[in-house]
Amino acid sequence: MAVKLGPEAVQKFRGGLHERPPPLTVDSPFYPGKERRHADLSLSQLPLTESLYDCMKRSYPLYETRIKDDLRSGRNVMVVGEAERGAKAGAKAGAKRQPKQHTAYLSYPHN
Predict the structure, then answer these.
(1) What's 6's domain CATH number?
(2) 110 within domain boundaries
(3) Strand, coil or helix: 34
(4) I want to staple 49 with a disulfide (CB 3.0 to 4.6 A). Which of 23, 85, 92, 108 is the partner?
(5) Angle at 55 between CA 87 and CA 74, to 5 degrees
């Protein structure tokens, strides 16, 4: 993508909260609708482009309805994402003790 758009453009949407990359098309090899895990979602439920802020807004209801209560109950929660920034943030906030229970949540688009 950096070759096509230039490294400055890529860094802008990778490092910004509100910047979005160019939208995918449904015939793109990277279109998430081609993945089996998204088979039950409609075209309108799969974003073709998304900023970090869009992802946060989409994921927040899951935090409010499930993750927050588990954390307050003393459970260890593992939130898995595909973004490198998310992995780095998780490593910095890593637990010092062995977890008693793991809970993994996946956030899917919703309307």
Answers:
(1) 3.40.50.1240
(2) no
(3) helix
(4) 23
(5) 60
Lookup: tokens for 57:
């807004």
Assess whether pLDDT exceeds 60 at residue 24: yes
In whole angstroms, what is the distance from residue 34 CA to residue 29 CA?
A: 8
Q: Does residue 53 sit within a domain?
A: yes
Q: Which residues contact 57 (CB under 8 A, 6 or more apart)?
A: none
Q: Which amino acid is at 25?
A: T
Q: Quick one: tokens of 40?
A: 């039950």
Q: Is there a domain that residue 50 lies in? A: yes
Please count the structural domains in the chain. Answer: 1
C-alpha–C-alpha distance, residues 41 and 32, integer Å: 10
Tokens of 107: 């956030």
